[in-house]
Amino acid sequence: MMLKPPLSLLLCGLMASMAHAAPDSRTTEAQLVKSLQAIQDNRLDIALNEVDSLLRANPNFKLAQLVKGDLLMAHAGAINNFGSAAHAPREKIEDLRDEARVRLQRVQTQLSIKLIPRYLWKLDAQQKYALVVDTSRSTLYVYENINGEPRYVADYYITIGKLGTEKVSAGDQRTPIGVYFVKADLPKNKLADMYGSGAYPLSYPNEWDRKNGRTGQGIWLHGTPSDTYSRPPRASNGCVVLANDDLNKLAPYLQVGVTPVIITNQIDWTNEQDQIERDALLQEVEQWRKDWSSLNTDTYLKHYSHDFSSDNMDYPAWAKQKQLVNSAKSWIKVDLSNVSVFTYPEQPNMVVVNFEQGYNSSNLSNRMKKRQYWIKQNNRWQIIYEGAA
Q: Of 1.10.150.20, 2.60.40.1930, 3.40.630.30, 3.10.450.50, which CATH number belongs to 272-388?
C-alpha cells in the first residue's frame, strides 16, 4: 500500500539525516527509528515487524502504539499523517508527534562523547557523577568523574514541564534552570503510582532562586506511571521525568546530597577560555582564604560584591559582623577541601563554588560545608552569596 504524500513528506523531514546516524540497534529509540525508516522506504511489513518487537518489550509505549495503528490503517487504506484515525484526540496526537520528532532528533544528531559541558569546571573527589539536562534536546546526560575530569557515560530521553522552562512561581508548570543537587532518594513503595519506580527530589529553590524571588518546590527526577512507558517532551508539572527503566539505570549514579544536576535550556560546551577563567576563579578563592586567615578584614571584604547577601544579611551587615568577629581574634587558620565549581546556566560570568571549610581561631573551631556564588564584575571575581551548603 503506497502512502499518500503528506505522511511520506512528514517522515522525510523527520528522517532526513538518518544516513549519518549510528544508533545502538538494541535501544528503544533505534528500533523506533528503524520502523519509521521502513515506513519512509514504503516497506510496511518490515516496519510492522520492528514496531511489534518494540511493543513486546515495551507494551505501554504509546508512540509505538500510534505507529502500529497507522501501519495497520495503511494496510486497510492510505493514510495522510501520524494519528489520522477519525476522532483521535488532537492534543494527545500532537504530544506523540512531538515525542517522535524529539526521539528522532536524539538519534540523528548524537553529540560527540568527547564534548564536555562547560558547567562542570571542577568536580570534587566525592562527586562520582554529574548530570546535565539539556531541555532543548529533551535529554539528560551522565558524566563520570575520572580524576577530576568529566567523561560521558550515558544519556536518556526526558520530559520537562508543560509550559517549558524558567520556573518562577509555584504551580507555573515550568522546569527551573540552574545548578541543583539530589536531596533525597524516595523508593517506589513510598510514592503514588504517577512517580513510577522512584523519585529524587532536587534542591529547588536554590540560593540564587530565593535571591531572585522564585517560589515553589517539589522539583524531582522521577519515573512514569505503571501503565505508561514514556511521556511527551512537555508533560510534567515541572519535574524531570524518565522512563522507569531509564530511571533504574540512572539510580546507581545518584548520591544524595552530593550529585549535581545542572538544568539548562541548551548545553554550552567547554573551550580553551573556560580553562583560563576557571584557573583565575580558583586563584581568587585561594586568595579569599588567605586574606581571611590574615585577619586583614578590609582586604578580606574586598572579595565581596556590594550586591552580596547571606540569608537575611546584606553587605553592610555582613561587613559589620565580620569586623566585630575578627576584632576578637588573635589568630585564624582556614583550610578548604573537596572544592567543586559549576558555571551557572543562562547567567554569564557566575559560578557556584562548594567546599568543606575548616575554621580554627584563638577562640573557636568548627568544620562545615559551604556554598558561595561568585560573579565576575568589572573584570574581577567577587562573592555575591555565601552560606552553609
A: 3.10.450.50
Look up residue 159 and give its DSSP letter: B
Mean local confidence (pLDDT), 227-236: 95
Contact partners, residue 279, CB within 8 Å, separation at least 6: none
Amino acid symbol at 73: M
Give the Cα separation of 43 and 63 in Å (integer): 19
3-state helix, strand, coil in the chain (%, to 5): 35, 30, 35
Q: Are 82 and 66 in contact (CB under 8 A)?
A: yes
CA neighbours closer than 13 Å in the CB half-sphere of residue 217: 1
Identify any residues that bridge with 199 across adjacent strands, giving them in sequence order.
Answer: 186, 222
What is the Cα–Cα distance from 64 to 50, expressed in whole angstroms? Answer: 10
- Per-residue model confidence as pLDDT tens digits over 291-331: 999 999 999 999 999 999 998 899 999 999 999 999 999 99
CATH number of 120-264: 2.40.440.10
In this prediction, residue 16 has a pLDDT band, given cuts at 50, 70 and 90, of very low
Alpha-carbon torsion angle 101, 107, 108, 113, nearest 10 = 140
Long-range pairs, 362-367, Cβ under 8 A, ≥24 = 362/329, 362/330, 362/331, 362/332, 363/328, 363/329
Name the strand (E) or helix (H) holding 29: helix 28-40
What single-letter amino acid sits at 128?
K
Q: SS3 for 114?
A: coil
* Chain-centre distance for alpha carbon 45: 39
Distance, CA of 225 to CA of 185 (rounded, Å): 18
